[in-house]
Design goal:
single chain; mainly alpha; 17 helices
Amino acid sequence: MVQAAATAYYRFTLLIFNCLLTFGSYFCFDMPSVLQQQFQGNLTCLNSTESNETTNCVEGLGMTPQQYNLLYAIYAWTNAVVVTLSGFLTDKLGSRVGINLFSFLIVLGSATFALGSHFKGTSYLLPLMLIGRLLFGSSNGSLIIAQDRIIAFWFKGRELSLAFGLHLTCSRLGSVLNFFLTPSFERNFGIQWTLWGGMLLCVLSFFSAIIVSVLDKVGTKQLGLDALLQEESKKVRFRDIRHLSLRYWLLVVTIMFFYNGIFPFVADASKFIQDKYSGYSQQEASYIAGAIYDSSLLLFSIAGILVDYVGLRAIIALISAVLTLPVFALLAFTFVPPLVSTIWLGITYSFAAASLWPSVFLVVPHANIGIALGLATSVQMIGIGLCHLVVGQLLGNQSRNLKILVWHWQQVMIFLLANIISCVIASIFLNIVDKWEGGALNMTTKHSESAQQETPEPSETSPLLRDSSGENRIN
């Protein structure tokens, strides 16, 4: 019993530090969304002569809407290009190498991004900030792959969605704190120091990466699996991609279309709320946009527990997509208070994420998880990057201080709604193909545990893999 308790304590201690790996990067990722007015504000307000212009003037970096959306697009494109290769390298070199390398590059990227803000009004501003987002984007998606690979090793089994939900909760805590703290921090210290503060959080996440590396190395050695894992890594080949099933690819497409609706909306939500709905300040609009992450922060772990308990992952993904449809319909065609839609979106997002991403671990061998996650992230980011471009075109290139017309925003919401409809269609096919291929995604927990007991792993006798009942925890 003591040894079993120590095992659970060890795994969840490792999980805590593993969750902190992306806290800083998630905080920094949506800082432009919170500071959209400052990014698109005038270079100076000192020369304004009309009182109305002075009142409405926001001093900032002087970006156009298209340049602003390019900051998100280049992040997505870089992810799309890099993550497949980085996933393969993580499979080949191991998760520990991945988390240390990618955490360091995130620090470098966030520092370059903050440095670029000091060059406002010059031709260096946009290139430096794009380089920073490029480094940031190439590393953040790759870090998540290495992070998820560690979770898959230590928690594959009944606790998989719970561990994944806790990881998302901690990551989204960074996003939530960004929406709450960044506006007031910027008012007191300015945009440059605000961006440098985000970089310091990435440094703290880098130290967490070092701790996770040590814990993972010690743990696998105690289990006697370190040499075996290294041997499996040597056998990984890039051509293993051809063995990925149709069910996996449908899962990837479902993920892409769902996130096509979420991330582009969050990036522009603050300005959308101010432009369409009267009476909201920048800070109030940021709080309402951040409600997506507030509600998901509270629900990720609960959703993970429920998905682990019930199973039926593909069905839950389909239900989540269907329930997301009314959100963008409300935003496009009604003036229902936006807080209703953002909370609603946060709820469906929580259950979709808790069911979709852990499903990848169930349809792909552990040795190829890095490649599989890399491909999934690549496709996801290609879709998100294209969506940001489309949104930028729909919003236009008008004067950065003017309100964008409501009908432009309506076109954006209809476009995002079309992506969610596509997600519903893809998830229907996912459920059909899953049934053809054995129904692993829609197994109830009881049937899933029976299947695991029939095919035990060679390492199931290792004491650190068992709970107090003697049940194997890594299958």
